[in-house]
Amino acid sequence: MRASVGDQLVQHGRVVGQHDKVGEIVEVMGKKGEPPYRVRFQDGHEGVCSPGPDTEIRHRETMTGQ
């Protein structure tokens, strides 16, 4: 998994009724875009994440259509 600053990290809900948690990657702490990532979530919370299999990276270029 590789990401850049500005990409979105999406943690999919694990149980029925649990919403996805979406955040913006504000720092890439690994080498060459690899985890861990510092993420700012929509509620303002920031944390360091090492994504698991329930996580998706939405690249900035894909979101803007470039």
UniProtKB/TrEMBL annotation:
One matching Pfam family: DUF1918
Region described as Disordered: 36-66
Domain spans labelled DUF1918: 1-57
Residue spans of biased composition, Basic and acidic residues class: 36-46, 55-66
The protein's name in its UniProt record: DUF1918 domain-containing protein
